[in-house]
Design a protein that fits this description.
alpha/beta, Rossmann fold, DNA polymerase, domain 1, 2 domains, 6-stranded parallel β-sheet, 10 helices, 8 strands, elongated
């Protein structure tokens, strides 16, 4: 019997990149604003030097985090880049840079057309609903997004990787959510758009994994328990399993 559905966020409930930009180009929109904030506080450093320092290591740092290595947080990454570039911002300056970085990207975010209807349908079936997201942003920013789009009332629990220092597909972040919801893994479903993180991790702890098809993230090696193209299809899948 299915008692809970846990969702990934970006690419599943919310579209963070409706323009379809390559990942690092999308990140650059935020970094532009952070750069302007940080160089205003100290000696100038060239834009490209700052950007190169930030971007060159970002994919590797992200991979390390998902493999169970060092946590990745936006504020920490900006501190590291500032140190490498000879900038010495105070903590208030780092906080402003984080806010500017996220603000520029947050403007891009939209909610998928069937997200709210899907959440309402699941809630109406007395299912607990959770959210587990890989992100280097502080969770408070994402909770504001969820509230802005009207998702927050449907979510019984949310967890963001940078806050807890554990990233999908590591088992700890799934069990953290399951424990908070009070549901065993065998009675829960995870829904996400990145097979190697969302599906592999969920199945690894005993959950069923539903892949929301994303042509940017495909894998021939991962076998989800179900595949959907539109989120609302999930309702029928869960009913079948229940």
């Amino acid at each position: 019997m299915i008692r809970a559905v846990i969702f990934d966020m970006g690419g599943t409930l919310l579209d963070f990149n409706p323009g379809g930009l390559p990942w690092l180009e999308w990140e650059r929109l935020g970094l532009e604003q952070a750069y302007e904030t940080l160089v205003a506080q100290g000696d100038p450093v060239s834009r490209e030097t700052f950007f190169t320092q930030f971007m060159d290591e970002l994919p590797e740092r992200w991979t390390q985090a998902t493999e169970g290595g060092k946590n990745l947080r936006l504020a920490d990454r900006l501190r590291e880049v500032c140190a490498a570039c000879g900038l010495v911002p105070d903590e208030a300056g780092i906080d402003r840079a984080v806010d500017q970085y996220i603000g520029a990207l947050d403007k891009q975010v939209v909610v998928y057309a069937d997200t709210l209807d899907t959440l309402a349908a699941l809630q109406g079936r007395n299912l607990k609903i959770g959210l587990v997201s890989n992100t280097m942003w502080p969770g408070e920013y994402h909770r504001r997004e969820l509230a802005r789009f009207g998702l927050e009332p449907y979510l019984d629990h949310t967890v963001f990787s940078a806050d807890v220092g554990v990233w999908k597909p590591q088992p700890g972040i799934y069990t953290y959510s399951l424990d908070a919801l009070g549901v065993p893994a065998a009675a829960a479903v995870f829904v996400g758009d990145m097979p190697e993180h969302d599906i592999v991790g969920a199945q690894g702890v005993g959950m069923r994994g539903v892949y929301k098809r994303n042509h940017s993230f495909r894998s021939q090696e991962v076998e989800p328990d179900a595949t959907i193209d539109d989120l609302y299809e999930l309702v029928e899948v869960v009913e079948t399993w229940s």
